[in-house]
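ok so i was messing around last nite and threw this chain in just to see what happens. nothing serious, just curious
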Amino acid sequence: MEAAFFDLDKTVLARSSMMAFAPTLFRAGLLRRRNLLQGAASQLVYLRWGAGPRRVARMQKSVLSVTCGWDQAEVRRLVGAGMHDAVDPITYVEAVTLIAEHRAAGRRIVLVSAAPEELVEPIGARLGVDTVIASRAALDETGRYSGRLERYAYGPAKAELVEDLARREGIDLQRSWAYSDSITDLPMLETVGHPVAVNPDRALRRVALLRGWEVARFELRPDPGTATGAGRRRARRHGSAAMVATSAAVLSAWWLRRRP
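result:
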């Protein structure tokens, strides 16, 4: 069996999946304006420079602190309710097309992300993937987040999870494909015979060029199928939210640069 492994953020989606649902969580009262501002600043840095290990560790610590005590069932409900508006406008058409092509070729489609299962699983279901590999938060006895992680699907651990899945399901990794934007996913890309760097950060682009890997460029463009009626209204709402987030990110970045 062959498979195609897709990273999620900046590979299938143009931005962070967690930030995509921030407005939904804010409206539900789970996030504060300060959280949105901090998240927008982190998003700006992430989009411009990528996410190295230290930066990811800081973001992980912040997310675990903010979400500690949230009810997992409520988060799943909110994610499901906000899926259409949060995910569709930032999904790369090229990624959707590739998923369809790999499926038509008989390959198993796997979405692999360091984001939490509560986000990745419904996104995977919406994209029609076969399997999801994601991070898993630890819960207390009441079903609320404890502030710890049971599994962190990041860096070398992501590659190990891919190899575990391949062993269990008889996937031939040397005949399989993997797509990612980040140098942190180099271990996963190295596990397959057909690695592809999608919108790569500078470090991954350098490795891809040295090794002769394919480099793909995905661009976010409006889906013509949603350019009427409710689709236009959703696009306007998304555009307004993006403008607010961008403004907050610029102000936050300016403030962060002034800090010692």
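not much to say yet. Residues 3-258 form a domain with the Rossmann fold fold (CATH 3.40.50.1000).
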